Amino acid sequence: MVTLTAVHGDITTQQVDAIVNAANNAMRGGGGVDGAIHRVGGPAVLEDCIVRFPDGLATGDAGWTTGGDLPSRWVIHTVGPNHAAGQRDRSLLTSCYRRSLEVADEVGARSVAFPLISAGIYGWPKDDAIAAAVETIAGAATRVEQVRIVAFDEATFEQVREQIACAAEAGVGGQ
Ligand code: ADP
Asked: Which residues pair with residue 114 across a beta bridge?
Protein backbone atom coordinates (compact mmCIF):
# COMPACT_ATOMS: atom_id res chain seq x y z
CA MET A 1 0.00 0.00 0.00
CA VAL A 2 1.17 3.53 -0.77
CA THR A 3 2.39 5.69 2.11
CA LEU A 4 0.96 9.13 1.45
CA THR A 5 2.38 12.25 3.14
CA ALA A 6 1.84 15.98 2.89
CA VAL A 7 4.89 18.20 2.39
CA HIS A 8 5.11 21.99 2.54
CA GLY A 9 7.62 23.35 0.04
CA ASP A 10 8.92 23.50 -3.49
CA ILE A 11 8.53 20.34 -5.54
CA THR A 12 11.79 20.98 -7.41
CA THR A 13 13.83 20.32 -4.24
CA GLN A 14 12.23 16.97 -3.42
CA GLN A 15 14.60 14.01 -3.11
CA VAL A 16 12.41 11.39 -4.76
CA ASP A 17 12.73 9.12 -7.79
CA ALA A 18 10.21 11.14 -9.80
CA ILE A 19 8.38 14.44 -9.51
CA VAL A 20 5.14 15.10 -11.35
CA ASN A 21 4.68 18.19 -13.47
CA ALA A 22 1.30 19.90 -13.99
CA ALA A 23 2.01 20.51 -17.68
CA ASN A 24 -0.16 21.69 -20.57
CA ASN A 25 -1.13 19.95 -23.82
CA ALA A 26 1.73 21.50 -25.79
CA MET A 27 4.35 20.10 -23.36
CA ARG A 28 6.84 22.87 -24.05
CA GLY A 29 6.94 24.48 -20.61
CA GLY A 30 4.66 27.09 -19.08
CA GLY A 31 3.90 28.98 -15.88
CA GLY A 32 3.45 27.87 -12.27
CA VAL A 33 4.97 24.56 -11.26
CA ASP A 34 5.72 23.77 -14.94
CA GLY A 35 7.94 26.85 -15.23
CA ALA A 36 9.72 26.02 -11.97
CA ILE A 37 10.43 22.43 -13.07
CA HIS A 38 11.83 23.50 -16.45
CA ARG A 39 13.94 26.23 -14.81
CA VAL A 40 15.54 23.88 -12.32
CA GLY A 41 15.63 20.82 -14.61
CA GLY A 42 17.34 22.81 -17.35
CA PRO A 43 17.28 22.38 -21.15
CA ALA A 44 17.47 18.57 -21.06
CA VAL A 45 13.87 18.42 -19.84
CA LEU A 46 12.56 20.50 -22.75
CA GLU A 47 14.72 18.60 -25.26
CA ASP A 48 13.27 15.32 -24.01
CA CYS A 49 9.71 16.76 -24.17
CA ILE A 50 10.27 17.66 -27.83
CA VAL A 51 11.69 14.26 -28.75
CA ARG A 52 9.29 12.12 -26.73
CA PHE A 53 6.12 14.22 -27.19
CA PRO A 54 6.27 15.74 -30.69
CA ASP A 55 2.48 16.17 -30.65
CA GLY A 56 2.15 17.08 -26.96
CA LEU A 57 0.00 15.15 -24.53
CA ALA A 58 -3.78 14.69 -24.08
CA THR A 59 -5.61 16.03 -21.03
CA GLY A 60 -5.71 13.32 -18.34
CA ASP A 61 -2.70 11.49 -19.77
CA ALA A 62 0.89 11.30 -18.45
CA GLY A 63 4.37 10.57 -19.77
CA TRP A 64 7.96 10.78 -18.55
CA THR A 65 11.15 12.64 -19.38
CA THR A 66 14.54 12.88 -17.76
CA GLY A 67 14.76 14.98 -14.61
CA GLY A 68 17.76 16.83 -16.09
CA ASP A 69 19.44 18.83 -13.32
CA LEU A 70 16.67 18.09 -10.78
CA PRO A 71 17.41 15.86 -7.78
CA SER A 72 14.84 13.40 -9.16
CA ARG A 73 15.76 11.08 -12.02
CA TRP A 74 12.44 11.48 -13.85
CA VAL A 75 9.79 14.10 -14.42
CA ILE A 76 6.36 12.63 -15.03
CA HIS A 77 4.36 15.20 -16.98
CA THR A 78 0.59 15.14 -16.80
CA VAL A 79 -2.05 17.50 -18.16
CA GLY A 80 -4.89 18.44 -15.84
CA PRO A 81 -8.27 19.76 -16.98
CA ASN A 82 -8.46 23.54 -17.27
CA HIS A 83 -11.42 24.27 -14.98
CA ALA A 84 -11.08 27.99 -15.64
CA ALA A 85 -11.58 27.31 -19.37
CA GLY A 86 -14.66 25.14 -18.75
CA GLN A 87 -13.11 21.65 -18.53
CA ARG A 88 -15.02 20.35 -15.50
CA ASP A 89 -14.87 16.56 -16.02
CA ARG A 90 -13.47 15.28 -12.70
CA SER A 91 -12.47 11.93 -14.21
CA LEU A 92 -9.85 13.80 -16.25
CA LEU A 93 -8.31 15.06 -13.01
CA THR A 94 -8.31 11.66 -11.26
CA SER A 95 -6.90 10.16 -14.48
CA CYS A 96 -3.83 12.42 -14.10
CA TYR A 97 -2.97 10.80 -10.76
CA ARG A 98 -3.74 7.26 -11.95
CA ARG A 99 -1.79 7.63 -15.21
CA SER A 100 1.16 9.28 -13.45
CA LEU A 101 1.44 6.33 -11.07
CA GLU A 102 1.23 3.92 -14.04
CA VAL A 103 4.11 5.79 -15.67
CA ALA A 104 6.02 5.65 -12.37
CA ASP A 105 5.55 1.87 -12.42
CA GLU A 106 6.76 1.77 -16.04
CA VAL A 107 10.08 3.44 -15.17
CA GLY A 108 10.41 1.72 -11.78
CA ALA A 109 10.07 4.81 -9.58
CA ARG A 110 9.32 3.90 -5.96
CA SER A 111 8.98 7.43 -4.54
CA VAL A 112 6.98 10.15 -6.28
CA ALA A 113 6.09 13.76 -5.43
CA PHE A 114 2.93 15.37 -6.86
CA PRO A 115 1.88 19.00 -6.97
CA LEU A 116 -1.84 19.72 -6.74
CA ILE A 117 -2.72 19.28 -10.38
CA SER A 118 -5.09 21.88 -11.89
CA ALA A 119 -5.30 23.76 -8.56
CA GLY A 120 -3.34 26.83 -9.73
CA ILE A 121 -3.69 28.58 -13.09
CA TYR A 122 -6.27 25.97 -14.20
CA GLY A 123 -8.52 27.00 -11.30
CA TRP A 124 -9.87 23.69 -9.99
CA PRO A 125 -11.52 24.40 -6.58
CA LYS A 126 -8.87 23.71 -3.95
CA ASP A 127 -10.89 21.41 -1.65
CA ASP A 128 -11.92 19.15 -4.50
CA ALA A 129 -8.44 19.22 -6.08
CA ILE A 130 -7.07 17.90 -2.77
CA ALA A 131 -9.86 15.32 -2.40
CA ALA A 132 -9.28 14.03 -5.95
CA ALA A 133 -5.54 13.72 -5.30
CA VAL A 134 -5.85 11.97 -1.94
CA GLU A 135 -8.59 9.50 -2.87
CA THR A 136 -7.01 8.54 -6.21
CA ILE A 137 -3.48 8.07 -4.88
CA ALA A 138 -4.69 6.19 -1.77
CA GLY A 139 -6.82 3.88 -3.89
CA ALA A 140 -4.29 3.20 -6.66
CA ALA A 141 -2.88 -0.25 -7.41
CA THR A 142 0.80 0.62 -7.83
CA ARG A 143 4.29 -0.53 -6.92
CA VAL A 144 5.14 3.03 -5.86
CA GLU A 145 5.80 2.91 -2.12
CA GLN A 146 5.98 6.57 -1.10
CA VAL A 147 3.94 9.44 -2.45
CA ARG A 148 4.25 13.04 -1.32
CA ILE A 149 1.73 15.73 -2.11
CA VAL A 150 3.75 18.93 -2.13
CA ALA A 151 1.82 22.09 -1.23
CA PHE A 152 3.43 25.40 -2.02
CA ASP A 153 1.74 27.43 0.72
CA GLU A 154 1.13 26.76 4.39
CA ALA A 155 -2.70 26.90 4.32
CA THR A 156 -2.89 24.40 1.46
CA PHE A 157 -0.38 22.17 3.23
CA GLU A 158 -2.62 22.09 6.34
CA GLN A 159 -5.64 21.21 4.18
CA VAL A 160 -3.75 18.38 2.46
CA ARG A 161 -2.54 17.05 5.80
CA GLU A 162 -6.10 17.01 7.16
CA GLN A 163 -7.51 15.22 4.13
CA ILE A 164 -4.77 12.58 4.26
CA ALA A 165 -5.52 12.02 7.96
CA CYS A 166 -9.24 11.63 7.16
CA ALA A 167 -8.47 9.11 4.42
CA ALA A 168 -6.20 7.17 6.80
CA GLU A 169 -8.97 7.06 9.44
CA ALA A 170 -11.35 5.78 6.79
CA GLY A 171 -8.80 3.05 6.06
CA VAL A 172 -7.77 4.05 2.55
CA GLY A 173 -4.05 4.58 3.05
CA GLY A 174 -2.12 7.59 4.28
CA GLN A 175 -0.07 8.33 7.36
P1 ADP B 1 -2.25 24.10 -13.17
O2 ADP B 1 -2.07 24.86 -14.46
O3 ADP B 1 -2.40 22.60 -13.38
O4 ADP B 1 -3.32 24.69 -12.31
P5 ADP B 1 -0.13 25.41 -11.58
O6 ADP B 1 1.33 25.22 -11.73
O7 ADP B 1 -0.69 26.74 -11.89
O8 ADP B 1 -0.82 24.22 -12.44
O9 ADP B 1 -0.55 25.06 -10.10
C10 ADP B 1 -0.67 23.76 -9.57
C11 ADP B 1 -0.35 23.80 -8.08
O12 ADP B 1 1.07 23.82 -7.93
C13 ADP B 1 -0.88 25.02 -7.35
O14 ADP B 1 -1.43 24.60 -6.11
C15 ADP B 1 0.37 25.90 -7.14
O16 ADP B 1 0.28 26.67 -5.96
C17 ADP B 1 1.43 24.82 -6.99
N18 ADP B 1 2.83 25.20 -7.27
C19 ADP B 1 3.33 26.19 -8.03
N20 ADP B 1 4.67 26.16 -8.03
C21 ADP B 1 5.04 25.11 -7.24
C22 ADP B 1 6.28 24.56 -6.82
N23 ADP B 1 7.46 25.05 -7.21
N24 ADP B 1 6.25 23.46 -6.00
C25 ADP B 1 5.07 22.92 -5.60
N26 ADP B 1 3.88 23.39 -5.96
C27 ADP B 1 3.86 24.48 -6.77
From this structure: 149
